Amino acid sequence: AAGLPGESPLVRVLEDESRSRLGRFNQKDVSMVFSSEANNKALEAIFSSQLFYENRQERFIRSMAEWLPRKAENLTPYTMALIAKYVARHRLREPRLLDTIANFLLKRGEQLDSKVIQKLVFPFSRMNYRPSNHGELFPKLEAILEQKAGSSPLATVNILMSMFQLSHFPQSVLHQVFSPAFITNVMSSPYALIVRRYLSLLDAAVELEFREYSGPRLDPRYRVLMFEHALTADEANRKYSYKGLVAEALRQLVGEECYRQDEVLPPGYCTGRVGGTALLPPAALGTGVTPPWPRGDAARSCPCRVVLSVNDKWHYCQNSDILVGSRAMRDRHLRLLGYCLVQV
Questions:
Q1: Do 14 and 43 contact (CB within 8 A), yes or no?
Q2: pTM to 2 decimals?
């Protein structure tokens, strides 16, 4: 911040001092951070710092998890949304923090607008975690969405996506978002494409996971791919992903002529394929293939329907073997499509 070069002696001394103090965060430190709304910037600075990123499971998070449930009622929605944002960003599956956010949402949800609600709901799907009060919370969220769906379409579909990833399908809200009125409203908005992408993925999830649903569906003319093209790692980022390593190994194993990259499996999951074997790169979700897709006996009769799923550390909750919600939903869909899923 002072404009000093990172390698200067002063910066190094300050960094060393910060690291030595990080392990001594205590209850008093947490209370001081939350003592006034003016300290939201301090909280954001802590969560954004490289030191916190490197030591995200240190005493600060444990202290926050102990302190927050007792003080949550005194926090503003902005502060709670800020906590939710960084809990999700760092993939911190700390049940006490997540349940505190859920209780805050249950008590104040009716007073919040949809954009704030989506920020508070996102950590649950990100961490693939159903809060302990979900039996009360999810129906309340459905009732709120029924009232506010039209006022903020993008926030509405984001909340729906979070609930779908947790295998909860609010039927009454689906009636609204797939209605002609909602679609007309979306098409005249500046975020029409992203909402159509989310609605397309939601429609595919309904087809695969919510078979008893009998309400309106997304008009086929509005279906689009979640991504316009396959997500491929460039040379600079390839070192952070195992996808490139696995792809190169498969090329050497079966030969260049037998390996084809970036094919698409319905309902739009982007893959690479080796003969009858598919290699699935990270975070490549999409929709756009008209149902029905092969399932059951028809799917099992297809030869060599195997998906090799290459998971990097950021596809899991921090220090856990639990997949993040979007990854878990994708795996469910592939299995429902009849694929044998092999995790790497």
A1: no
A2: 0.79
217 DSSP 8-state letter:
-
**Contact yes or no for 343/144 (Cβ under 8 A):** no
Instruction: Identify the residue whose tokens are 């302990």.
Output: 132
Closest CA to 78 of 104, 98, 45: 104
Tens of pLDDT, residue by residue over 131-141, are: 999 999 999 99
184-188, 236-240, 262-266, 323-327: least confidently modelled range? 236-240
Strand boundaries in the chain, DSSP class E: 259-265, 269-274, 277-280, 306-309, 340-343
Amino acid residing at 118: Q
| CATH code of the domain made up of 235-278+300-343 | 3.40.960
Strand partners, 63: none
Structural contact between residues 141 and 159, judged by C-beta atoms closer than 8 angstroms: yes
Query: Cα(331)–Cα(333) distance, rounded to whole angstroms?
Result: 5
Residue 26 dihedral angles phi and psi, to the nearest 5°: -135, -175
Query: Is residue 248 scored above 60 in pLDDT?
Result: yes
* Domain boundary assignment for the chain: 14-222, 235-278+300-343
- Residue 49 structure tokens: 């710092």
CB-based burial, 307-323: b 16+ in 10 Å, e otherwise: bbbbbeeebbbbeeebb
CB-based contact 254:315 (threshold 8 Å): no
